[in-house]
Specification:
Protein name: Type II toxin-antitoxin system RelB/DinJ family antitoxin
Pfam family, one: RelB
Order of helices and strands: HH
InterPro entries: Arc_rbn_hlx_hlx, RelB/DinJ, Ribbon_hlx_hlx
Number of strands: 0
Largest sheet: none
Organism: Candidatus Eisenbergiella stercorigallinarum
Helix content: 40-55%
Distance between the termini: 48 Å
Oligomer: single chain
């Protein structure tokens, strides 16, 4: 097993800690679930889009 460091804003970490706690898990488990889903589906588990530039519309 390896270790990955992630930088988060203090407020974001606190909110993520609270959300994970409400679900009965910790942040490590949250990221493990996220990584396993991404690998299983071979895609990021949500859409990432750039805002449409009105110049090209």
């Amino acid at each position: 097993m390896t270790t990955i460091s992630i930088r988060l804003d203090d407020d974001m970490k606190r909110e993520l800690d609270e959300m994970c706690d409400e679900m009965g898990m910790n942040i490590t488990t949250f990221f493990m679930i996220y990584a396993k889903k991404a690998l299983r589906d071979r895609r990021i588990p949500f859409d990432i889009v750039a805002p449409i530039d009105p110049f090209y519309s």
